[in-house]
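W.,

You were right to be curious about this one. When I first looked at the sequence I had no strong expectations either way, so I just let the prediction run and decided to look at it fresh. Below is the sequence, 295 residues in total, followed by the output.
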Amino acid sequence: MMNEIRFDALLPPEMATRAEYLGVRKAEMPAFKMFTLAVLAGAFISLGAIFSIVVSTGTFTVSSADGQMLYSIAMPYGLSRLLAGLVFCLGLILVIVGGAELFTGNTLIVMAWANKKVSTYALLRNWTIVYAGNFVGAIGTVILTVLAKHYTFAAGAVGVTAIKIALSKVTLGFWPALMLGILCNALVCLAVWMTFSARNTIDKIIAILFPISAFVAAGFEHSIANMFFIPYALLIQVFDSGFIATLADQITNLDQLTWSAFFWDNLIPVTIGNIIGGAVLVAAVYWSVFLRNRE
């Protein structure tokens, strides 16, 4: 009998099988290839972060013919967050469609690990190499962006937005950062999970849009995105103290924006939260439903 040809999306049990298969392939990937693709993913997520910073910046102004400002309208908070979320989707779209290795999405390898298709060593090897590669890609993008003086755009308003975002992240506190990390990667992994049902590129993009827009709009915390957001603000301080000096009347508590705060008060708790959100709330749940007792 000829195999039936199907054009509709894969169903959840088939998606689980695909997630397991991809988990094995990711875990078995050669280290250099894995690291290189991880660097790309860090850069891709950073591009989405840059896009969201720009969209979150400034006000809408209307001027007369002679250049006099007639009025200025600040975007409502919800609308600003929605737009930031929509454009941030660029990062995961590039990762999924372009082909790259993202730490947060790779927590889904737990589905293959739970079925003993991937060893604990292979799982941790993948997470370690990919996390390091994501960091290198993000920091490399930070350096390029700072050297380009992108933060001076819109009369410095882009830089102000970037620094305010970074400050809001390093002052969250350990437990809020952890919980926001859990919520974030549950949505990220649900987006990746839904792309497993896709038959074409458009399917993948649509599957990504709403979960990723939701986590950004809601203010959840993504460890790889934060590898760009916070170091971007920190390196502005390093490379352009004159610019920072002009912000005294616009930003308070700049002394709280430090490398120590980045690692201990944000990156560590958010990373732990991302692992829990992806590996437990998504991977383990779908494994238990579709793969645990598979015949």
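Here's what jumped out at me. Strands lie at 59-63, 69-74. And, maybe more interesting for your project: The mean pLDDT is 92.

Coffee later to discuss?

I.
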